[in-house]
Each structure stands twice: as structure tokens, then as C-alpha cells.
Amino acid sequence: MGLLRAAGVVYKPVEQLDLGPDSNEIYVEADIKAPRMGGLLAKIFAWILESRIFGALAFYILKRLNRVHKFISNATVEEPPMFVPLHPYVDLDEQEVIEIDSDASPAERVQQAMNCLPLTSENSLDAFKFSCFRRWTIADYSRAYRNGEITPLKVAERFIYAVHESSSRPLSIAFFINYDAEDILRQATESTLRYERGAPISALDGVPIAVKDEIDCSPYPTTGGTKWLHKVRPCTGDACCVARLRSCGAILVGKTNMHELGATPSGINPHYGPPRNPYDPSRISGGSSSGSAAVVCAGLCPAALGVDGGGSVRMPASLSGVVGFKPTFGRIPHSGVLPLNWTVGMVGVLAGTLEDAFIVYAAISGHLPSHEPTTLPPKIHFPLLNSTNPISNIKLAIYGEWFNDCNEEIRLCCSNAVQLLCERYNWKTVEVTIPELEVMRLAHYVTIGSECSTALSSHLENLGRSEFGWDARVVVDIYGAFNSNEYIKAQKLRYRHMQIHNKIFAKADVIVTPTTGMTAYSISKNALKTGELDYVNGGTIIRYQIAGNFLGLPAITVPVGYDKAGLPIGLQFIGKPWSEPTLMHLAFAMQVPTV
């Protein structure tokens, strides 16, 4: 198809880019050329892509229409490739932090995190009986257990009943792919005995924590949202992050639902049902950590683990009205996580509050196992959230055209939230230009697609595609269409965008954006059995997520309001490498009532 070859962009050196507010760099909006597909249309599209006659032509047209040829395949990029977004550790001299002993156990780190939190009122259970819905925090569970007001065993029994009820309604919420009542009760009994002896392991002892079904957790298989993956990759033990939670006494209550293979941001799974949004069960909870977001939103767990390869922790957290925290690439061990996207995926935390996200992060962070790629082990600092001296002189970078590329209700809500923060703490916004954001989105898509296709290739040869949901089948077909030239070009662009973001962070402490470009959309009936491909809505949801994954940057989303339909809106802070304490300070400041 040489005669139809699309012209490629010639990227000028980063040094020549103007990143100031008056830059002539044009903001390129996403222009996704793909119809929404579900039901029969999704099946037909899969057959076309897999056809020997029409498949190659279809892939060529898709790449050309969606500007992959222009921005990636045929582009001229002078920068060297960067295959893994590992950042050398730099001491950022952050405000109001404490350094943690790198040899501290998970339980010791949890206690140190608790020591960093402000004191809370000693409310008894009776104080909540007649109030409106309120999520229990980790501190609430710990306090109630210590005071003997309730036991972990009683909590486990109520949890099992609530999950059963939510699964047996006419409209199942579909929180979990697997949960084992007997195993939950066993863990709860052991925890209850520890409290009776006056010897709980940590504040997490007896606290229910859910785990995305992309992370190994005994005694469950790890399905990745599929009907087959656990048959060819058996789970042989806990992932490192899960083992650390277990060592703190947490009750691991099961494997949460997710989009099959994390394929799209909707979270809809045709095999196990769509995890529905507790704010409106007719709508998505967001993906791919959809079940983790829904179970935290519903108040069944104060926190859950997710995996964030393309916003898959932060998007569902925002759409479901909870906190979503993705640390720096390499901060949390990735061993025991499905190797679907090894240079963009990262274990993250979804929680009802910033404090609970912090406590779980404290438990699972720390030195990496020696077999994982890393530079010198980064130091661990915790934010002193109980400090009477709020952090000062914070500069928030805002790229106006990008920030405003969302629906009007989100734009107003997030703008007002930033304004309130700046007024209360005397922080400043810095207007910047971040060029080539659409290029970065496409480069990330080529990267995550190529890595996922490679990870699945041996299984596809043996199994074929018959056991896939139709939406995941189409996505895997598209992933397999990227070639080595495109993958290398994408890694060159990764290095390029790392340099661009380093220049932005020389001007500001964090980048602030809405978390998603829209609130949760409705679940279509024809998606229930086949899944759905909605690249237009998906592109709007993922718009602000890519830097966190492609560049390995830490990011956090915190709820800041609701749209007219009562659906949650999130605000996101993207930080410098290893700046987790500053991000938690900012999220905590946003969470604290301003009146």
C-alpha cells in the first residue's frame, strides 16, 4: 500500500518547544474514528478483522483514520527509545514528610502511617445508627474492634450477607468474580481471636480488603476477567502486595470483577456481569478495576487493590466517587500480577478516603524483590497529614485547553475546586502548554497493545479466540496489528514526552486536571452478552490518564463534586517521580471541607 502511504510528522527537538502559556503549539483533540459496537455488530467486526481477505485492509484503514500512521508509524523521531519508565531516585526535599526505615515490616509501616494521621473523634457504633449512608474507614474498624463494639467475625458475616444480597437481586451489582465465604470466615475468626488476646497485628487487622482479579491471591484463581486464563496460568500463591496486606492481618475478601484483560475503560464484563455503579446501577463503574471501585463505593470495603495500566485505578475511582492512587512506576512490587502490560501497569489503591489509601499504600510499598528491574532503591517518605503547618508555595500546572476539554459540568466543578484550594492555602496556578498529548495517547496505545499481544501470544496459538468475549476479541485483534517499527517509535516518543514533562515539572510541583472527560455513562443492553467497544466515550474517559502510565508518574484522583444527575466528578493531581507524599498532601487538602 505504498501509494497510499500517509505522510508522517517530523517532530522538532524538545528544546525548540515552547511550553509557556502563549505557545503556538496547537492542542490536538482526540478524533477517534470507530463506531460504538456491541451485540451482533461486535461479532461482525471481529470476523472482519480475523478475515484473511479483509483483515489487513481493515487494520490499515483503522490506523490511517485514527492517525497512527501520521503520528507514529511514518513519523520521524530523533529521540532515543525509552523502553521502561524507571526514574532514578531524587530526593525532592518535600514539605511535611517523615522518612521511613526501608527495613520496616508492613505492619510497622502501617503503624507509622497511623501516626501521621490527624486525631479523629472516638465515635461509637451508636453514633452511626440513625445517620445517612457513611462508609466505615480503616480507623473506624480498628477502633470498634479494640473497644469490643463489634468483632471481625461479625463484620465478615455481614459482609458475606451483603455480597450475597447484591448478587441475587434482579439487577446484580457483580462486585466479585470469586469470593469464598468459608475462607473469609476463617480469616475473620483468627483476627477476632487476636483482638480477644489484645494482640492485633496492625490497624488493618480484621479490615476487609478486596483484590482485583488481575493480582494473585490465594486460594483464588487469577482470571484476568476471562474464562480461560487461570487454566493456563495457575495461581501458586499471593502476589507480593497481597502477602504484605495479609501479614498485617487484613481480611482478603475475594477477587473483584474487571473488564476482560483490562481491555477498555467501561469495566463491562460479558462473562461475570457488569460491575454496576452504586450511584446509579444503570451506569458503568468504570474500568478496568470496576469491581474494586464499586465495592469501595458501596461501603463493603474501605479499600481495594487495582492495577492501573491506562488509568484503570483512577478512572473507575473517579466515576464511582472514591479515591484512586497510582504510585510511581517501581514503587510497589509487581510480582504476582498478570504480566499483561509490564512497562505501563502498576498496582494501585482505591479507597473511600485519602487516609485509607495512605494506610494501604504504607502496607504494600517498600523494597522491590531483587529480580525486578530497578535503579537504586528509592527512599520512602510519608506525609505528615497531622502537621499544623500546611505545605506552602505549591505551584499547580494547568494546560487550559486540555483542562477544559471535558463536559461543562466537570469543567466548572474542577475549576472551582482548584480555585478553592488556591484561595485557602495561597497556592498558585501556572499556565503551561503540554504539546502532543494526542500523540502520547496513541504511543501508549501502541505500547500497551503490543505488550498485551506479546503476553498472550503463546496462549492464543493454543486456545484460539473462541473463549474471549467479543469486545476483548476485537481489542486483542487490534493489539496484534502493531509492528516492531511502531513499537520502537512509541518508545522514542516515550523518551520525548519524559523530557517534555521534566520541563513542566521545572515550572510547577504538580499537574492538575479533571480525572475524566465525562461522568459514568449508561450500560447498553446489547453489551451484556458481548461486551462493548465504545472508543469515543472511552477516549473521553481516558483523556487525562496517559502520563501516569506511559511515563510512570504518580497520580491521584479525589472526589470533588457531582453533576446534575448526581454522578461523581474527580480531580486529578499528577506528580514528579517519587512525589507520593506531596500528592497525598494535596488530595488530603482537597478532601478536607473548606467551610
UniProtKB/TrEMBL annotation:
What Pfam family does this protein match (any one)?
Answer: Amidase
Region feature (Disordered): 265-286
* Amidase domain residues: 178-583
Report the GO molecular function annotations.
Answer: catalytic activity
Q: Which InterPro entries match?
A: Amidase, Amidase_dom, AS_sf
Q: What is this protein called?
A: Amidase domain-containing protein
Q: What is the native source organism of this protein?
A: Gossypium barbadense (Sea Island cotton)
